[in-house]
Amino acid sequence: MGQNDIVSTPQTKVRPKIEKPRLYKVILFNDDYTPREFVQMILQAVFRTGDSVGYHIMMTAHRKGSCVVAVYTRDVAETKVKEAMDYAKDAGFPLMFKAEPEE
Ligand code: TYC
């Protein structure tokens, strides 16, 4: 490089665009057949709600038709929905969960 060459620093910074992972809510739906205690057991075993939160989620679904259980990344939400519905199916109950993307 010659003595009079100008070395300029780049004016633009490279900022990689990092997208936040989309979150999925797990929704619990009411039905007329699954016992309340069984719903609570699933909420505690699969979604780690604890006693009191599990009871309130179950009762909200019972009274209003559905209730958001929790929010996860897509993989976790779908795995938990499958686990919960497999438990219910094995026990012969029609309990329904769905994973839906958040707006
Ligand atoms: N409705 C059910 C009953 O009376 C209990 C129940 C609650 C079922 C919530 C599903 O998501 C549910 N046995």
UniProtKB/TrEMBL annotation:
GO terms for biological process: proteolysis. The keyword Ribonucleoprotein does not apply. Residues 19-97 form the Adaptor protein ClpS core domain. Gene3D superfamilies: 3.30.1390.10. It comes from the Bacteria. One of its GO terms (molecular function) is peptidase activity. Pfam families: ClpS (PF02617). Keywords: Hydrolase, Protease. Belongs to the ClpS family. NCBIfam families: PRK13019.1-1. PANTHER family: ATP-DEPENDENT CLP PROTEASE ADAPTER PROTEIN CLPS, ATP-DEPENDENT CLP PROTEASE ADAPTER PROTEIN CLPS1, CHLOROPLASTIC. Binds to the N-terminal domain of the chaperone ClpA. Involved in the modulation of the specificity of the ClpAP-mediated ATP-dependent protein degradation. This is ATP-dependent Clp protease adapter protein ClpS.
